[in-house]
Design goal:
Number of domains: 1
Helix content: over 70%
Shape: globular
Number of helices: 11
Order of helices and strands: HHHHHHHHHHH
Largest sheet: none
Oligomer: single chain
Structural class: mainly alpha
């Protein structure tokens, strides 16, 4: 997700993430009683567990919005302090929204099967993001970058879920609740698999799966950027 990914792919991911994050701003109107573009099934979940559901829906967009820019090496090099601060905000947003998502999962509109999928996503999201943060603190930047790829693959599930929804409606699913039995898994598991395959191919191409030699300069720079972590 850094130097090896074509620039157009990274920017496409960023644009999609920004669009979905902006769409999610409508949830900020819910406390005022305005349900702008929110379907009855999601509305029902919010009404049952408002604190948990809104804790996820209001905070997760920050992680979605910040994530792509963490992978842009030129931004990291030019604005190291901003990279460090936005990284901390990303981790905090993942923790808050991940815990909220886990608490909301039992009330998923798709029932227990969907709840299991979303709950599994929340647990994996929290664990991988915590591992990425710990690796940065310990200055293991190769592991940090790898885990951050997986973390954002799960964060980006918010985008792939929305991209998949029209396909499920075309396939005959009559509502989001019906489709979410599948979306709870298809929205993020393929992302994780793709990141895993990409990382494996990258390691094989470089011939050093533990630390890419051509990232030595970037590594030394990042040691300085997180020294205050």
């Amino acid at each position: 997700m850094e130097r090896g990914i074509p620039r157009i792919g990274l920017w496409t991911m960023a644009v999609l993430a920004v669009l979905v994050a902006l769409m999610s701003l409508r949830y900020y109107a819910v406390p005022a009683g305005l349900w702008l573009g929110i379907g009855p099934e999601i509305k029902g979940v919010i009404q049952r567990v408002p604190l948990q559901a809104l804790g996820h829906m209001l905070i997760a967009p920050f992680a979605l919005l910040l994530g792509p820019f963490q992978f842009m090496p030129r931004l990291r090099a030019r604005y190291p302090r901003a990279h460090r601060i936005s990284g901390r905000i990303y981790v905090a947003a993942c923790f808050i929204s991940g815990i909220s998502a886990l608490a909301t999962a039992p009330y998923a509109s798709g029932g227990p099967i969907a709840g299991l999928g979303f709950g599994t996503l929340a647990v994996c999201w929290l664990a991988v993001t915590a591992g990425a943060w710990r690796a940065a603190v310990q200055r293991d930047f190769a592991l940090h970058r790898l885990l951050m790829r997986f973390s954002y693959a799960m964060t980006f599930g918010a985008v792939t879920l929305r991209l998949q929804m029209p396909l499920f409606f075309v396939m005959g699913f009559h509502s989001y609740g019906a489709a979410s039995v599948w979306l709870a898994y298809t929205s993020w598991i393929p992302n994780v698999i793709l990141v895993g395959l990409y990382s494996m191919l990258e390691a094989l191409r470089r011939g050093n799966p533990t630390f890419p030699q051509n990232d030595i300069t970037e590594h030394n720079q990042e040691v300085m950027t997180v020294s205050a972590t």
